[in-house]
């Protein structure tokens, strides 16, 4: 099924409100709900029971697994993976009776992956190609290529573009520690300040 002349797929049980923008090649599956003003890029996969809130921005080639809610204030860049039932928030001081609450933005940068059932407390940035472990509770920024897990999530290492953990340091320059991936052979530059944070947090 295509959506009339539009080149994307919407399952008959899904709700796409008027004013939502959906990119070519995107697929929206059972019981998903896309609110007005949401912008979803090309070639995305929006799984069963996903909720995309008003004015949320989602890039190209994003995979959102079943049961994820992306609330207002969250921005998702290209090539991001959101695992089943992971959770975003957008309010630091939630009360059911607050009328003047403030949306606190969250940014998930290009290529990052967030594992199943992880919780992302609003106000953080998940860096490029970072990996958030299943069930993690993220309360502060995750650096590019950072591997975090636990509650609260701690920086436990770094991952390659391919997702494997980086183990081998092959050099450094003025600003970076340079790792080489044992799986795909690519070199990844990690900022020295992020590597120092890892040394502080790895045994916590």
UniProtKB/TrEMBL annotation:
<protein>
    <submittedName>
        <fullName>Acetyl / acyl transferase related protein</fullName>
    </submittedName>
</protein>
<dbReference type="InterPro" id="IPR050179">
    <property type="entry name" value="Trans_hexapeptide_repeat"/>
</dbReference>
<dbReference type="InterPro" id="IPR018357">
    <property type="entry name" value="Hexapep_transf_CS"/>
</dbReference>
<dbReference type="InterPro" id="IPR001451">
    <property type="entry name" value="Hexapep"/>
</dbReference>
<dbReference type="InterPro" id="IPR011004">
    <property type="entry name" value="Trimer_LpxA-like_sf"/>
</dbReference>
<dbReference type="GO" id="GO:0016740">
    <property type="term" value="F:transferase activity"/>
</dbReference>
<keyword id="KW-0808">Transferase</keyword>
<dbReference type="Pfam" id="PF14602">
    <property type="entry name" value="Hexapep_2"/>
</dbReference>
<dbReference type="Pfam" id="PF00132">
    <property type="entry name" value="Hexapep"/>
</dbReference>
């Amino acid at each position: 099924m295509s959506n009339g002349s539009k080149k994307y797929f919407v399952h008959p049980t899904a709700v796409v409100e008027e004013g939502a923008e959906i990119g070519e090649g995107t697929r929206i599956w059972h019981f998903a709900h896309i609110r007005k003003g949401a912008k979803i890029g090309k070639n995305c996969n929006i799984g069963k029971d996903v909720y995309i809130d008003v004015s949320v921005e989602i890039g190209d080639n994003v995979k959102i697994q079943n049961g994820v809610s992306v609330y207002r204030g969250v921005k998702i860049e290209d090539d991001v993976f959101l695992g089943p039932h992971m959770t975003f928030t957008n309010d630091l001081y939630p009360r059911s009776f607050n009328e003047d609450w403030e949306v606190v933005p969250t940014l998930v940068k290009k290529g990052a992956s967030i594992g199943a059932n992880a919780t992302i407390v609003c106000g953080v940035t998940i860096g490029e190609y970072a990996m958030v472990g299943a069930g993690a509770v993220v309360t502060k920024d995750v650096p590019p290529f950072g591997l975090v897990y636990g509650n609260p999530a701690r920086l436990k290492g770094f991952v390659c573009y391919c997702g494997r953990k980086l183990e081998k340091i092959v050099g450094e320059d003025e600003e970076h520690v340079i790792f080489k991936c044992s799986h795909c052979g690519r070199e990844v530059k990690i900022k020295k300040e992020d590597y120092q944070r890892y040394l502080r947090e790895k045994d916590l």
